Amino acid sequence: MTPDPLAPLDLAFWNIESAEHPMHLGALGVFEADSPTAGALAADLLAARAPAVPGLRMRIRDTWQPPMALRRPFAFGGATREPDPRFDPLDHVRLHAPARDYHARAGRLMERPLERGRPPWEAHVLPGADGGSFAVLFKFHHALADGLRALTLAAGVLDPMDLPAPRPRPEQPPRGLLPDVRALPDRLRGALSDAGRALDIGAAAALSTLDVRSSPALTAASSGTRRTAGVSVDLDDVHHVRKTTGGTVNDVLIAVVAGALRRWLDERGDGSEGVAPRALIPVSRRRPRSAHPQGNRLSGYLMRLPVGDPDPLARLGTVRAAMDRNKDAGPGRGAGAVALLADHVPALGHRLGGPLVSGAARLWFDLLVTSVPLPSLGLRLGGHPLTEVYPLAPLARGHSLAVAVSTYRGRVHYGLLADAKAVPDLDRLAVAVAEEVETLLTACRP
Questions:
Q1: I need a surface site. Which of 64, 107, 123, 266 has the fewest CB within 10 A?
Q2: Mean pLDDT on 45-70
Q3: What does 207-222 look like in DSSP terms, one character per residue?
Q4: How far is Cα 257 from Cα 271, in angstroms, rounded to an integer?
């Protein structure tokens, strides 16, 4: 395989990372076990299958003279994704001592940055103390994979599934050193349109910083420590709320976050009155069946969560209206689409400006709420069924909490990742999520 230059957004994720703010995403999967040795057997399977998954053998290498530099002047000072000739799966798959609390162990493991000289991923197998289950924590650097790509890589080491074949991508004609002059008018119009879109996004992002009403609990000083928690709720309950009130399942899931934050802030004494944190809702721009899923394809919506509103149905209505406005504008417009600006920054700018950009996330949004797609088919590892899966999003500098949500086998799983010192009561927030679903159900009853 030839080296593949990192896409601009991948390069941004690669360069904004620091030891205190690792840019990997994760997923904590819990499997049923039929014996105390099931975890050890699962670790052996993961190590044996990893070499057959090409994406898991790819490292990221910083370059100053990338291939085809004359054709890609913005690539100077970038990075490439290329096979690691020293790849050893035992460097990436690790079997741990039995754990009683999977989330407590996962939090400590999420603190540790991935080794940048090797393919940036890890799989940590955590046998259960009672022998009735085991867990696997997958970690993927965001420059290697977004949520959908990470799912594809993880599925490659789980038991085989019958999935639809990827749609082939049309072949592109070879590019010469100089552009086709016949295409210049269209390219010029495209460049002007891109420039106008960039100005629109930048202006919207600047306006989003005005009149910010967040909570110190969400934006405390970072300590570099991590804590995770998870909660599972019934998807049928979510559908009942949706059918009663209208909107989408995603609207309900976001409104649950707003209500849980209100309950949690009030209980810890911080107060929720007037609080409306800016939530970034990532939007995938990737085609689900793309044959070439490498590279992040993300935009996003930005909205203020109505945490300060005491009425649960009014909170849901506010979320639904905000999401409708975002969808009408599209993922290429507005403050939430700042990720698209990465395409307009030269590779050298990403490398030199990464530390500055990482500190700017706090100015842009207060909380990440993201959804990770999962197949409806049952997943297995060594014949052991996956029963729970909690996605974990990266925590940006200056942020205390990130929320990721996945739907799997009739259950909705909320994965919470927080700064351990800023949010020592993360388990209480997980409980508040379940309580908020019950609150919405009660409000929907006649």
A1: 64
A2: 81
A3: HHTTT-B--TTTSPPP
A4: 16
